[in-house]
Known about the structure:
Layout: H1 2-28, H2 41-50, E1 51-59, E2 79-86, E3 93-99, H3 100-110, H4 140-145, H5 148-164, H6 174-186, H7 194-208, H8 219-230, H9 240-248
Antiparallel strand pairs: 1-2, 2-3
Amino acid sequence: MGGNTEIVDMTACYVVTFVTVENIKLESYMDWPKEYSKTTQAVRDAAYKRYFVEAITRSVLLPGQVKTAYHDGLLTTDYYLFLFTSRDNPKLTGYFTCGLYAAKGWFELNGQRPEEIPSYNPLTGESSGGSKKSGCGITKSLKAELDPRMKRLIRVLQTFISLTDDEKRKIKGESTTLTVLQKLIKASKDAPSTSNIRSVNTTLYKALKDGRHGGARTFTQLIEHYEVLLGVTFKKITIDDFNQEIDDTRNKSATYPYIPLASF
């Protein structure tokens, strides 16, 4: 009888622990609250009192893509991806997309300037929005300060986001991806560390390991898949050195080996 009781207690403990962990995972990501989906400045003001809202990058619609803004309207041109975080609980985070006009209201609140927000068109390899003097994309001074290797790493993640942030192929975890991008951008003057490269590689590995994007399991295969699917050619980004660093440093720590496969 005593042995049976011990087994039941251990099982109960296991179940409680499992539920707790799962609840934490579910609560870490959130969708933009519906009550703040209107585009009036009064609604933005109310939302900003509850959430930190920051534009992380600007992207461009690719052929055949369908993307919806936080106010449920379809995006028709360049757009921003905003990361938002609860002021009461920083562990609660999410993201939303926003067109150029609606974004102005958020910039009035958070003080961001459009010309300082990194932008990228994966088809041309340039900042989205055309002219460098249009206030669209990275300013000339910021471009000059970017570490070349870090710039390539940022471009990989921006391209990945533009391909996977789509109504027809959306994946959970976009806010985590934007957080990784945010950290890279803030350190863009420095050469990427092994940790930086691993953070992007882990993002790619987790998103592609099930082959949901035409069987692609690496960034290179993802690009090849969508070039055929969309009938376009993407600007080539050199990535061999990133894969090499993943492989070379995999067993750098005898205690904590890096598990994800090289996925650039």
